[in-house]
Amino acid sequence: MASSLMSLKLACVVVLCLAVLGAPLAQGAINCGEVTSKLAPCIPYLKGPGGGAVPPACCSGIKTLNGEAQTAPDRQAACNCLKSAAATITGINLNLASGLPGKCGVSIPYQISPSTDCKRFQCL
User: Fold this and answer.
1) 42-46, 57-61, 81-85: which has the highest mean pLDDT?
2) CATH code at 71?
3) pTM
């Protein structure tokens, strides 16, 4: 159960970077279980001291989630899952989380933060 909570917060911190472009009040096809499972391999990296290599399974999950969250409803759903998860996992290094998308070759137009307003971002 603690692992599930950690995975959920990871989703909150990491996927925020990937899925914050959602439209307000839209219900996405992506669910929190999917977000959590895809980003779970990132948790040890985000709780570590930093400076190490990002686990390949973490980058794979980030890239997969980013590819799946292409619609506004999906991006908002993923963002909200990440925000919920962020409140449950202790010890996440937000500086590492902020740099994680770039280290995995994913470009995002916003700051990764638990305070990100998922409703504020619209698809271009």
Assistant:
1) 57-61
2) 1.10.110.10
3) 0.71
